[in-house]
UniProtKB/TrEMBL annotation:
It holds the Pfam family Laminin_G_3. This is Signal peptidase I. Residues 18-46, 220-230, 243-253 have a biased composition (Basic and acidic residues). The chain crosses the membrane at residues 70-91, 194-212, 272-296, 308-327. The lineage of its organism: Bacteria, Bacillati, Actinomycetota, Actinomycetes, Propionibacteriales.
Length: 544
């Protein structure tokens, strides 16, 4: 063997250098595969979440998105309340000024229901052709019928009736729904008030943008395959097969199966767009449904319910319930001691000769007449003789206004027409702290009381009822106390009188300092029935 010739290498044997080169090649290929794998995992086209930087929002952002969607939903609901009735022939109108304050505010949308040939009801709010401004509408309350049979109207906040009566043919509908402040953009457009309109539009755009943000991160459902280079088992065929497998894996990594369509963002954006479009359409429909602006005069004074009232005045409400006696206390001549009974029963009352003055402002603002002020020391009013045993089913009611801290009798039954009665209950009285107490005496003192503070210088209505259903006290049209176990009062054997503004209060709960009431009284009534809660409420609404 020549000295420079290498020994023969057996077939199928790999030298150390060859093995090293092969390992280096495999290592390079592995690095290449890893690089491809990384490149595939970070491919922006296949991973939009990574490319766009979308992320799951934090709690503050999530709260803001939720609130924005809630506000948009509320606006959509309000717009629907105003716009949808127009689809069935109702009339939405924007309130442009304040003659129906405070129940209808400037910028409210009032929706009126057509009468379809029926006659309007006294006390309802009517939408009608403005007789003083052709081509415009007016929304005022139906308050009377003139001698020629025409409808007389009045704004609740206006001191006088409208100057021009209308015919039934001019009526478009009766006020039924109120949507607060939704018509403000219409008002701003008509008056050229662009700043609040622009701010509102900008705010709405901001809400829409915030509400349209996704709250769920896009998902990545790509299966991340493990990397398998294939072990070298020393078999050349295996190497070839391993290379083929590796090539297939590389192709699979470079062209993975399609990902499922991300579900976190697009549906939310579609929902926001739908909400926006619907809201805009509803608002536009509302605006189109406002042919005039319901022009009013601008004075403000009192309140009234927007919906139809069963009674428009206290007098009509009281008389409808058939009182035993009803003193409106409208008398202006103090030398005349008689108090007119407006119940129709001619039970003229008797004033004290002193201690009272007529007040120009009465409790029920839509009624004509006056009120009576009592001085808290010798002023009072009493009914004629109630010539029977006092009733166990009855109602006593009165309006009062005071700032006194000495309390006093409002109205009640006693066995004496003047001075202090020896038998006395079935009464309403005021405590020093300004609470109204309703008391009866079925062998023991039984009282129910309101909260304190009604001596605030404002008008309040107090009503007490007794019946087999129990003892109930109402203040300003709302039940404030009741005792269902008390169903009778003192069983006096003699007749008596209904006293107003003064009588005995000794030994009653929270006895006030004074038996005399100091303040203004109005519309005192006694019924021999227990008025229902609905009737009491309607009487109160008739005066407000």
């Amino acid at each position: 063997m020549p000295p420079d010739q290498s020994p023969e290498t057996p077939a199928g044997t790999v030298t150390a250098d060859a093995r090293t080169d092969h390992a280096r090649t495999d290592h390079d290929r592995t690095d290449h595969d890893r690089t491809d794998h990384d490149r595939v995992e970070h491919d922006p086209a296949e991973h939009p979440a990574a490319a766009t930087g979308e992320r799951l929002p934090g709690w503050p952002e999530l709260l803001g998105i939720t609130l924005a969607r809630a506000v948009l939903a509320a606006l959509l609901s309000l717009a629907a309340w105003a716009a949808v009735p127009a689809l069935i022939g109702w009339h939405p109108t924007t309130v442009m000024t304040g003659s129906m304050m405070p129940r209808l505010h400037v910028g409210d949308v009032a929706v009126s229901r057509p009468l379809h040939g029926r006659a309007p009801t006294l006390g309802t709010v009517l939408l009608f052709d403005d007789p003083d401004h052709p081509g415009r509408l007016r929304l005022h309350r139906f308050v009377a019928v003139d001698p020629e049979g025409r409808i007389v109207t009045k704004g609740d906040a206006n001191p006088q009736n409208d100057s021009s009566p209308i015919t039934a043919a001019a009526v478009r509908g009766v006020g039924t729904l109120r949507v607060p402040f939704l018509g403000l953009p219409v008002l701003w457009i008509r008056t050229g008030d662009w700043l609040p309109l622009g701010l509102t539009v900008a705010g709405l755009i901001g809400l829409i943008a915030l509400a349209g943000r996704p709250v769920v991160r896009r998902t990545d459902d790509e299966a991340r395959d493990g990397h398998d280079d294939g072990a070298d088992n020393g078999d050349g065929a295996d190497n070839a097969s391993d290379g083929a497998d590796r090539t297939s894996a590389e192709a699979q990594r470079r062209n993975p199966a399609p990902h499922p369509t991300p579900t976190g963002g697009r549906p939310v954006r579609r929902m926001a767009a739908a909400v926006t479009a619907t809201t805009a359409a509803a608002v536009l429909l509302t605006a189109v449904g406002v042919p005039a602006g319901a022009a009013f005069s601008d004075t403000t004074d009192t309140s009234a319910d927007f919906a139809a009232l069963p009674y428009f005045t206290c007098a009509s409400a009281v008389v409808a319930s058939s009182p035993w006696v009803y003193y409106r206390m409208d008398e202006t001549l103090l030398s005349v001691l008689g108090a007119v009974d407006s119940s129709g029963n001619n039970r003229t009352g008797t004033y004290s000769s002193t201690g009272r003055t007529t007040q120009q402002t009465r409790a029920c603002t839509r009624d004509s007449g006056y009120a009576m002020s009592f001085n808290g020391s010798n002023g009072s009013l009493s009914s004629p003789l109630y010539n029977a045993a006092p009733p166990n089913t009855f109602t006593v009611a009165i309006w009062f206004k005071t700032t006194t801290t000495k309390g006093g009798k409002l109205i009640g039954w006693g066995n004496s027409q003047t001075g202090l009665s020896g038998t006395y209950d079935r009464h309403l009285y005021l405590t020093n702290a300004g609470a109204v107490v309703f008391g009866v005496y079925p062998g023991a003192v039984r009282t129910v009381s309101s909260a304190t503070g009604l001596n605030d210088g404002k008008w309040h209505q107090a009503v007490g009822t007794l019946s087999p259903a129990g003892q109930v006290l109402y203040v300003d049209g709302v039940q404030v106390a009741a005792d269902p176990s008390t169903t009778s009062a003192e069983q006096a054997s003699s007749s008596g009188y209904w006293r107003i503004g003064y009588d005995n209060l000794a030994n009653w709960t929270n006895t006030p300092t004074s038996n005399y009431f100091s303040g203004t009284l109005d519309d005192a009534a006694v019924y021999l029935t227990a008025l229902s809660a609905t009737t009491v409420r309607n009487q109160y609404l008739a005066g407000t």
